[in-house]
Amino acid sequence: MAYFAWDKNDSTTSSSPKVDEEVNLCLMAKDQSDVSSAISNIFMNHENYNTLLQAFLGTHDEANRLTQTYNRLKGLNNWLEERVNSLEEELKSMYSTFEHLNMIYQSSNH
Asked: Measuring CA to CA, which of 25, 34, 57, 97 is 20 to 30 A from 72?
């Protein structure tokens, strides 16, 4: 049985204490093939984590862009709704004026 351990002061090339701990535990395994398999799994998990992290960061950036676009479009929609309401009021006023002028015109022709 092989047993390897590092002092906490030794430097390693891995990126996190969790990975260091997993590697140390793997190196305490009985069989070299177990060690190779365990180390391979650790690095695959690390690669999968990085892949997922990059996908998350990309999704997060896209969500932020969509939020900004949504807020801009929401403001534009509010402005357009106010403009439609204003134009509807103006149309009502013009129609009322038209009816009044039409009544004057018809009464002057009879």
From this structure: 57
